[in-house]
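Standup notes
- DV: blocked on the single-chain target, sequence here:
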Amino acid sequence: MAKDVETIEQGGEFSAKDYHDPPPAPLIDAKELTKWSFYRAVIAEFIATLLFLYITVLTVIGYKVQTDPVKNTVDPDCGGVGILGIAWAFGGMIFILVYCTAGISGGHINPAVTFGLFLARKVSLNRAIMYMVAQCLGAICGCGFVKAFQKTHYNTYGGGANELQSGYNKGTGLGAEIIGTFVLVYTVFSATDPKRSARDSHVPVLAPLPIGFAVFMVHLATIPVTGTGINPARSFGPAVIYNKEKAWDDQWIFWVGPFIGAAIAAFYHQFILRATGIKALGSFRSNA
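- DV (later): unblocked, structure below
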């Protein structure tokens, strides 16, 4: 278990403040499967993703209904919540749901986040797989509720499905998803870093807040390109319920892009910023 020492200024003097990194999660943790806390965390991920998709997809469809020039007389440029409101819906829900579930499951609500944390050995393989399954099922159920309550609007206005927008090629869409997910997962690592807590203990940081803002900012940038995925479950759920060819044709972008972005963020934070690999090598040499 890695141990570092931080130097903290206190009353004009400097004192050492140490902290411990949590031990890396085992690749496969069979003991987890016998604990209720594991299944409780999986259920929390399912419910959180269900609520996330329900609220956000309703917001997207509501905006399209309000700005439809055929059905409404309001100016499309002024009616509805707009792209800003959609971005707030996604960022705000992530803030709320991460705050509610962080103490139970870690508040992933996103297979890309789970994948990044798995690569950094923050979660075991069996936990990562179960989380991803729960997240995808939750997304499907969330969109299913939207369709059940507003079937006509759901089918007419695209079902909230992510699709590559006209005027952009697949490479541009893939790049947007990679960079957007990198921003999100990098923020997750930074906001939950135990070293930050040790160094900046005098500055209270509510981790869900920067994570929610990261989602908000990425949506502002990439809604015009891909509709903003950065979350494979968010893209998969609407594709399953909407079930149109275009949504499925572009689906790979919303899996490959986020997973690549998450992997890059995990590598950057763990091996560049935290120099985990160098520390491990130094420990190995000292023991030798």
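- Follow-up: The longest helix spans residues 36-66.
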